Amino acid sequence: MAAFSEVAAVGGIADQRRTAAGSDGFATYFAAASGGALRLAVVILGDRDTAEDVTQDAFASLFSKWSTVRSPDAYLKRAVVNGCRDAIRRAEGRRRVWDRLRPQETHSTSDAPRTLDDALDRLSASQRIAVVLRSYYQLTDAEIAELTSWPLGTTKSHLRRGLANLRKELS
User: Fold this and answer.
1) Candidate from 31-35, 64-68, 111-115 with smallest mean pLDDT
2) Cβ(51)–Cβ(38) under 8 Å?
3) How many Cα atoms sit within 13 Å of 143 on the Cβ side?
4) pLDDT band at 169 (very low <50, low <70, confident <90, very high)
5) Cα 45 from Cα 40, distance rounded (Å)
6) Containing H/E element for 106?
């Protein structure tokens, strides 16, 4: 129950209209769904600390709309994926700035990735999300498109390009 109050406090959410049963329902849902949501974020991001932040934000958003959300699972998954996309974009921006500021002689002699995580880090946010949802969660193209709100053709392009870039990075 402590985790539930932390989620509620982070978003500054104090909905007086919510009944005690509604809050208890959310607490029960949070206890059941938090592990899966965190796993999804960790797999996409590769960083547990950022994944915890994204997951917490997703639950705070869900809590604020708890009484009107028809499918909490779908809402939560989409909120986690969107939060991961934003986190990857922020990290890419910081990495570009750091690369410009870093002296040239400190660059490593090899730009080849050493691990799968390094190779995934080199993919765009959209490609990484598509590849992880396909490979780890084994979702179909249509399921990925629905979860990410991308058109089916765009989803297929992100998958194809992401897998091609991953192969290139790892070869």
Assistant:
1) 111-115
2) yes
3) 11
4) confident
5) 9
6) none
